[in-house]
Design a protein that fits this description.
This protein is of the alpha/beta class and 270 residues long. The protein is built from eight helices and seven strands; from the N terminus they run ααααββββαβαβαβα. Strands 1, 2, 3, 4, 5, 6 and 7 form a seven-stranded mixed β-sheet that branches. Strand 5, helix 6 and strand 6 form a beta-alpha-beta unit. The radius of gyration is 20 Å and the shape is globular.
């Protein structure tokens, strides 16, 4: 039987450990020795995979208390650990020529925000209930390149350019780091000529479905990869419903999930 998905593998830990901030212990009155980062990360992944509430994290697992895991997740997110990890993983895929730069695909997905909080809003697709949106851009294979969290009432097209700008410079190949695909695919929710012009100004060819056009244009042949990526994201139960009032904590889960999906793509190379 395979290991539980919240157990941090050696391969993943080797990539994460150098990125974690170090805290020097006080010489006098050092206090209780902190729990090892790897065990705490297992606790964070347990919450991400199962969706369990922090206070119910089982102590017998040896991952520490829910509050300990919550604090480390907050601190590591503030230190930019997940963004750095994502860039490292993308560079590995790029070096192996496993990123499809011929096109990128964008889309969004709504999640209900049970407790409200920052970056929420009345959702037009959920009877005005409080919700948030996950905005995602992937390469042609469906590998996440960047993700943005907004309120549930934000129009998809307003996040088109921020998504493009959020793609980090990805290393791994000879020459300058790359961050722009050749073309961009999107559905009718992004149909606006002003934004098409802005995409062209970035030297990217916009391939966006037009409202009123008949279905069967063939764009779904390329756009399905982002739908699959959302299915992967929402396979993490903590992301199906937003329980966190603090937007940065939910965003940390979102970025960590993108890192795990990207790491799976690297494992598929073996």
């Amino acid at each position: 039987m395979g290991a539980s998905p919240w157990i941090v593998s050696n391969a993943l830990w080797e990539r994460i450990e150098p990125l974690l901030p170090r805290k020097e212990r006080r010489f006098r009155h050092p206090g209780r020795r902190p729990l090892p980062d790897r065990q705490v990360l297992c606790g964070i992944l347990f919450v991400l995979h199962t969706g369990i509430q922090w206070e119910y994290l089982p102590r017998e697992l040896g991952f520490g208390s829910g509050m300990t895991c919550w604090r480390r997740l907050r601190d590591w997110n503030e230190a930019g650990v997940w963004q750095q990890l994502h860039e490292v993983l993308l560079a590995e895929l790029n070096a192996a020529a496993r990123l499809d730069w011929s096109r990128a695909v964008v889309d969004s997905s709504h999640v209900r925000a049970i407790k409200g909080g920052g970056l929420t809003g009345p959702s037009p697709v959920d009877r005005g209930r409080s919700g948030s949106k996950h905005h995602l851009i992937t390469d042609g294979h469906g590998t996440p390149l960047a993700v943005i969290l907004t309120g549930g009432n934000r129009n998809d097209v307003t996040q088109l350019m921020p998504l493009i700008d959020a793609v980090p410079p990805i290393r791994g190949r000879i020459g300058h780091p790359r961050r722009k695909p050749d073309s961009l695919f999107a559905d009718r929710g992004y149909d606006h000529d002003i934004y098409r012009d802005q995409v062209r100004q970035h030297r990217i060819v916009p391939v966006i479905a037009r409202r009123g056009a008949l279905h069967g244009t063939g764009l779904g042949t390329y756009r399905w990869v982002v739908e699959r990526s959302f299915a992967w994201l929402h396979g993490f139960k903590r992301l199906r419903i937003r329980w966190e009032r603090r937007a940065d904590i939910h965003e940390a889960f979102l970025k960590l999930a993108c890192c795990l999906i990207t790491h799976r793509q690297i494992n598929s190379l073996c």
